[in-house]
Write a structure and sequence with these properties.
CATH topology: Aminopeptidase
Number of domains: 1
Distance between the termini: 21 Å
CATH class: Alpha Beta
Helix content: 10-25%
Number of strands: 6
Shape: globular
Order of helices and strands: EEEHEHEE
Number of helices: 2
Radius of gyration: 14 Å
CATH superfamily: Gcn5-related N-acetyltransferase (GNAT)
CATH architecture: 3-Layer(aba) Sandwich
Largest sheet: 6 strands, mixed
C-alpha cells in the first residue's frame, strides 16, 4: 500500500492510500484507490483532485490498467467527485459490519 499527502499553505489537508486490489474478484491488472480524505477546510481547492491524479499516475507506474474504489451509496458528494474524475459504478455492492452495514458501491475506471 502506498500513501500520498496533500498540503496547502504549509498545512497537511489530505491523504490517499492505494495499491493492490483487495477484492476477491479483482483481475491482476486492477489496482485500488483504498481510502481518500480531504479536510473540509480544503474542499474545492484542488487537493482532492491532485490526490486522485497522483493515485492514477501511481497505479499506472505499478503496471495496473484499471482502478476500483468503494464508496458509500448515499455519499452523494463523494460519488459526484469520483464520477467527475471518470469513475463509474460497475454494479458491485457490499455491506460490512465495520461500517454498520451501510451499502457500499464499487466504482471503476480505466487508466489508459
Amino acid at each position: 500500500m502506498l500513501t500520498l499527502v496533500a498540503e496547502l499553505d504549509g498545512r497537511l489537508v489530505g491523504w490517499v492510500s492505494f495499491g493492490e486490489n483487495r477484492d476477491a474478484d479483482a483481475a491482476p491488472h486492477v489496482g485500488e484507490l483504498r481510502a481518500l480524505f480531504v479536510s473540509p477546510t480544503a474542499w474545492r481547492r484542488g487537493a482532492g483532485s491532485a490526490l486522485v491524479a497522483g493515485v492514477l499516475d501511481g497505479l499506472r507506474e505499478l503496471g495496473y490498467r484499471e482502478s476500483t474504489l468503494w464508496s458509500f451509496d448515499r455519499n452523494e458528494r463523494a460519488n459526484a467527485f469520483y464520477e467527475h474524475h471518470g469513475f463509474v459504478r460497475d454494479g458491485a455492492e457490499q455491506r460490512r459490519d465495520v461500517f454498520a452495514g451501510a451499502l457500499e458501491v464499487r466504482y471503476r475506471r480505466s487508466l489508459a
